[in-house]
Sequence to fold (544 residues):
Amino acid sequence: MPASHTFTLRVRYGETDQMGTFYNARALDWFECGRTELLRALGLPYAEIEERGLYLPVIEAHVEYLGRARYDDLLRVTTSVEFAGRARLRCPVEIAHAATSAPVVRGWTVHAFADRQGRVARPPLWLLTLLEKPFV
Amino acid sequence: MPASHTFTLRVRYGETDQMGTFYNARALDWFECGRTELLRALGLPYAEIEERGLYLPVIEAHVEYLGRARYDDLLRVTTSVEFAGRARLRCPVEIAHAATSAPVVRGWTVHAFADRQGRVARPPLWLLTLLEKPFV
Amino acid sequence: MPASHTFTLRVRYGETDQMGTFYNARALDWFECGRTELLRALGLPYAEIEERGLYLPVIEAHVEYLGRARYDDLLRVTTSVEFAGRARLRCPVEIAHAATSAPVVRGWTVHAFADRQGRVARPPLWLLTLLEKPFV
Amino acid sequence: MPASHTFTLRVRYGETDQMGTFYNARALDWFECGRTELLRALGLPYAEIEERGLYLPVIEAHVEYLGRARYDDLLRVTTSVEFAGRARLRCPVEIAHAATSAPVVRGWTVHAFADRQGRVARPPLWLLTLLEKPFV
Fold:
């Protein structure tokens, strides 16, 4: 079971801006795609997590912009997940050009555990089991 | 009470693309802003409509791109609303440069009436009353 | 050489809205992804078309919303391209659930030929040759 | 001349996600709106800065999510700008509900000085003069 997961995506035309590179906010959209694919690879798609009544809202995000990426460039997104205390998850992400490995974006998000109403929830055992396995 | 409503918005940096003008899909976001402000002007903010359990999902959209608009350009969005049969609303929109009236986008959306689960709903009397008033 | 092209994409979390389905403007982003993949399949990535100084700005778009699609649903996007007169391209698109073929969105975009400055351009021979081949 | 600038914006429908609050990446779009309005208030719209050949690309961004905001909520965005060394600008931002002052988002972006080609540029005197005035 992977401690981290890598997949590729292409920069969409609508993700560029007039500077000719991707617009800065799109990095957070890509971080989300990375978490989605990581959780799927871990055997627990995030859609199923929400169906079980658990939400992982982003409570902090950090992004460093390291290089340009243009429309249709193929990017490699590598995402991992780790506990940050008992009540937080932290997901580091690295995005680089697939062809050259030249870095594009690096950063992380921090997630709380919440129920459907947005109230703090305890991470359930099934999630702890899943997330701790790769790191043992 | 207005049959149509006009407000202004500025093109955001993230709404531009590498062609240097606004990205085509953003027009539909602006149409939404126009409907939001129109319904507020009619005395019934859309947020309240949804709180009453009524949804107006877009079932058709049409956009004609008539001119360029760049980052930070001030645009004038004029939106109106009319019945298209008993079970549909139609919202024509015109977007032009505020300074010159040069046209930017023209189009319309068609909306169904639905309940929270997305099932077809009858337009309630309070909405009929509200929407028919301006056109009498 | 294909007259039409099909690829799949997943609904991103950020593409949903509070109605729980994808936000209507996102359909136009997906149409763009479809055109990008179609042109790549035709052997002429759109990035290269722009490098040659030719732009294909959207001058009209039409979208019909036929069904819901939720976060992480896998969608099948089928795009084709045809001439609409000598100076326009028309790209019909159909989007359906990959698993069930249930329709989600249907529509089309119309494109002009323009140069870097946004002025009308004649479609160059290399593009005519490329686009007419599949339809002979 | 203001050291910081406050303006209001409304959460757009397309900025919500299926959790019912704004999607996390949208905070960076709002940060951009804040910088745009701050620079306008300082007498130098960012569009003019780019016309002079100077670009201020985001090289780092940090966001803390402090509270929920729903569709059509009116938010107050307060942005300031300061030097971070000689070659960097730092723009702290605070976003709160206009009605209650309940915090929604807090964060900052860091900007480099670049020319049209994305190469590092020295901050020109006219910008130094402008930005240092409010903090004297």
Remarks:
- Residues 4-135 of chain C form a domain with the Thiol Ester Dehydrase; Chain A fold (CATH 3.10.129.10).
- Chain C has three helices and six strands.
- Chain C touches chain A through 14 residues (CB under 8 Å).
